[in-house]
Design the sequence.
């Protein structure tokens, strides 16, 4: 059984973490509420330049704005914000 990691939030922290998981052979579901951000990443480009474009194209990656797609994950990773 393969492990699936869902990363919530694809900003300066979430995107590099998701890439590290993909490099380690984990299937990753990458979730963000920003539809434009997800479309940009699906197209293979990161405007923030946190991750090289070539690293956005792992076959084991799903980019989504649909929270239901995270239901396949064994682990959820999210940045906690302090109040």
Sequence:
């Amino acid at each position: 059984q393969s492990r699936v990691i869902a990363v919530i939030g694809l900003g300066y922290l979430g995107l590099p973490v998701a890439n590290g998981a993909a490099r380690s052979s984990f299937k990753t579901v990458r979730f963000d509420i920003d539809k434009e951000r997800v479309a940009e990443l699906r197209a293979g480009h990161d405007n923030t330049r946190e991750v090289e474009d070539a690293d956005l194209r792992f076959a084991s990656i799903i980019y989504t704005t649909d929270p239901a797609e995270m239901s396949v994950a064994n682990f959820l990773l999210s940045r906690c914000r302090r109040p």
